[in-house]
Design brief:
The chain is mostly helical. It has helices at about 1-5, 15-20, 25-30, 35-45, 50-55, 65-95, 110-140, 145-160, 165-185, 190-210.
Length: about 210
């Protein structure tokens, strides 16, 4: 992105700073900083019409195909993370993913219901920010050649914004990498990634409840 950024016309510097700068609160304040990042994104979308189409493009091919693909990818991702990636990362770093803050979900229907609503809503909101805003709008600002780096930046910020410890940050970052790749493969349309993320969070929430 360095060469792309260097060649940006002056009028594009403000959009570029807003696009990537929106990630700063989420990275600086894991978990709750995402709300500030979301507020920045909403303000930009409200003021800058040029950001909306690239950020909010939703459907890949047909709606049902987008949702079905997302469900399949989200389910496969949940299994792959639980059975392969998480144990591998925990073994390499010598530390487990810190999910202690979610222990109250186990066996508690009321807490599970609230957690599930938050998990599904946050999945949609995170996809709009990390994929649509950063990658989708970023591709319009920096050019298509910058997309691989934007995917990496988005994934790294996604991992850093979740307070699950070092192993959790790596695992979550890898999840973001898969979702970013899915978003790009589907022509930078959000619905498949949203469906995948919601499916992943649904499975994870149910697993926490049954633990």
């Amino acid at each position: 992105m360095t060469s792309s950024a260097a060649s940006l016309p002056a009028r594009q510097w403000i959009p570029a700073l807003l696009c990537l700068g929106a990630l700063v609160p989420a990275i600086a304040i894991p978990t709750f900083g995402f709300l500030f990042s979301l507020a920045i994104m909403v303000a930009v979308l409200a003021v800058m019409k040029s950001s909306r189409q690239a950020t909010l493009a939703m459907v890949w091919k047909k709606g049902w195909m987008s949702v079905l693909l997302g469900i399949l990818v989200g389910g496969a991702l949940a299994v792959g993370i639980a059975e392969v990636i998480r144990p591998l990362v925990e073994g390499l770093l010598g530390k487990g993913v810190d999910t202690g803050a979610l222990d109250a979900v186990a066996g508690n229907v009321a807490v599970f219901a609230v957690t599930l609503v938050i998990a599904l809503a946050s999945a949609a909101a995170e996809e709009v920010l990390y994929r649509g805003f950063v990658i989708g709008w970023g591709a319009k600002i920096f050019g298509k050649g910058a997309v691989p780096l934007l995917i990496l930046i988005s994934a790294a910020a996604f991992g850093a914004s979740h307070s699950y410890g070092p192993s959790g940050a790596v695992v979550t970052g890898l999840i973001g990498l898969v979702l970013g790749a899915l978003y790009q493969i589907c022509g930078r349309r959000l619905l498949p990634a949203v469906a995948a993320h919601m499916t992943f969070n649904l499975i994870g929430s149910v697993a926490l409840f049954l633990a």
